[in-house]
Amino acid sequence: MGLTQQQVQERIDQGLTNETDLSTDKTTKEIIVSNTFTYFNLIFLIITVLLCLVGSFRNLTFLPIVIGNTLIGIIQEIRAKRTLDKMNLLNAPHAIVVRDGVKQKIETEQLVQDDEIILEAGNQICADAVVVEGSVQVNESLLTGEADEVEKNPGDELFSGSFVVSGQCHAELTHVGNESYIAKLSQEAKTMGSGEQSEMIRSINQIVKWVGIVIIPIGLLLFYQSHFINHETIRRSVTATVAAIIGMIPEGLYLLTTIALALSTMKLASRKVLLHDMKSIEALARVDVLCVDKTGTITEPTMNVKQIICSKNGKNLLHTPEELQELLVDYTLASNDNNATMQALRTFAENDGATPHRMVVERYPFSSTTKYGAIVFTEGTYILGAPEFVLRDAYATVEEEITTFTKDGDRVLIFAKYAGTDLKHGLTEEVIPLGFVILANPIRENAKQTFEYFNNQGVAIKVISGDNPGTVSEVALQAGIPGAENYVDATTLDTAAKLRDAVEQYTVFGRVTPKQKQKLVKALQIKGHTVAMTGDGVNDILAMKDADCSVAMASGSEAAAQAAQVVLLDSDFAHMPDVVYEGRRVVNNVQRSASLFLVKNIFSLLMAVFSMVLMITYPLEPAQVSLISMFTIGAPGFLLALEPNKNRIEGRFITNVLLKALPGGLTDVIAVGALVMLGSVFGLPDASVATAATLVLSVVGFMILFKISEPLNKMKYGVIFLNIFGLVFSGIFLKKLFALSDMSNRCILLMVVFGFAAESIFRYLTLIAEKLRARYEKKQKYTGYKRKRKLRR
User: Fold this and answer.
1) Annotated catalytic, 578?
2) CA–CA separation, 471 vs 476, rounded Å?
3) What DSSP element (H or E) covers 435?
4) Which residue among the candidates 115, 288, 293, 540 is catalytic per the annotation?
5) Straight-line distance from the first to the last Cα atom of the chain, in angstroms, rounded to the nearest whole number
6) What is the pLDDT of residues 563-610, one digit of tens each?
7) pLDDT tens by residue, 323-335
8) Sign (positive/negative) of CA torsion 728, 732, 733, 736?
9) Residue 486, SS3?
10) Torsion sign (Cα): 780, 782, 786, 791
11) Is 762 helix (H, G, I), strand (E, B) or coil?
């Protein structure tokens, strides 16, 4: 009967609902706070106060940029949050609950303590419960790490966070919401820190962290030297110190990354792709091996019964297809399984219009580990499952009968009579083949184009399925997967060494158990691959959890969809190229734009050190740094981050960024350092030298921008020339705002000389950096080759 509506309301009033406080998403308030109250915004606030105290108001030109960055970050994150909230609502987990004696489908958060729910294969257990009726096989690996399936009978406890592999039961909820087992585990995990970050975010955090550490002591030393050693005024000392600090702060880098990820998340959401966490964008972009299941990924999720044939086995007591069909219909109507195979058989039975003739004694639900299910009738025990697993050593006796169908890509199940009645310890008695069920599973219309895309992008496909390897190979060939003719029966891969060798040698793996799927993913990762796993059933969950990125079809099991990082809400595998493309676009563009930001940071840091060593005052003013940042770094960096980019990601993020940024940063230091020294020798005014240095830095900035933007196109030329125009316009009409002064002929001559010299310095330093990068990549490949040879041994 379950609870009544009055009892439900009483529990809601007592707060005994299944809602938890452990959301991984930020609230709107948290987004505003996290973008506003940052360490660098605190630094900007302090230097703003200092500049106001010394009356240097024109050097507050960085403030609009800082405020703009903060507002844009808040707006974009809130927009992304609203989009994802809507998508999450569509994909929210549901449960079948019995209330007032009626079955209802509601969101799991609406459940209350003592509710009676119905669980079946594919369901994730949403709260702690006790089985009151029926029997299920449960996988608790996500909680315990043990992959063995545990049988749960009336009176046994069910823990939230585990999922049902097979069977059906009614369970009464005992602990809900924050009191459930998974909520308590999640609370412990939350106190230990946040989850693993992507390489890009981790690298950017490292950059921000180290910059945050060094700017305080460097700022104090610069001020001490300028005011107490060089005897500059308080105003000059403060403005010089602030200029150095502003130059060292990568104020737009984190914002750029956040916006790029948020925009990609919203773009994918519009294509019915839900990201459970943003790091999955980068993970998929780095993938070089994509593991897919046959059913639901290469093929449509639905099946249909194509044919039923009697076995030619001499012991077969059934003589006509009609007898076999009647017995099979009885089996179908008696089974509680709800997988795609059983749904196809039920449709077949309904079309047949048959009614059950036999009385059920016991049910053994289908298990992806054993590859069969069974029903015990009063007159005997009958099994339906994979021929190799049901017949075991006797499989050869029927192999010839089913080869024709497997070669056509059809799925073949055997229907057999079992001599025993107890299957709790496996098949120990004789199995007599009665017939075969031939199932057709049509290939998705867009499968060929999708796999062709991955082949062109250098992403290897591995098909990992529980079906017959010959059948899977044929289906994969029809879908256009390269190397699909190379297949293996996973039951022969009984050692870790065989498994490691097989992952490189074969494309198709058949008769794979859930635990083997997990081992195959790990073996690929050990070989140095970045692995994505797609799936739609409970047999895919273990592998999905271990993969670098997991993708689920929303039409599959709810447990798989909740475990995945990416969910295809319309279950269309053709969206996968969109996800990979977005990932590559984001990471490549952020990587390129990040190097622009780091040029300024490297220059400011080294120029500060140069100033302290030579006991000179930092030559630039904050307004001049803001001008350079705006037109050679900030605006072009953001615009370039939005352009198309499908190149495969190579190397480590921080290494790539530093090697691209170093030539520009060093060129800036050499050019400006020499200009400052010669300005001192020729007795040029500090304001003129600062203006000349600003213009030289602008020239170098645009040289770097041209280099980083290669290969150039109309859009990139437009971005660069628009920013050149903006800088020239500001230099002519907003000279006072950006602290630019008139220069003598001697100063102009020095600026032109160092402008040309900077081009040569930058070109040679870039060549050196490229050689260093090539040497680094060669070393990485050699290290990877040695690791692979060691693994083979």
Assistant:
1) no
2) 9
3) strand 431-440
4) 293
5) 62
6) 788 888 888 888 888 888 888 888 888 888 888 889 999 999 999 999
7) 888 899 999 989 8
8) positive
9) coil
10) positive
11) helix
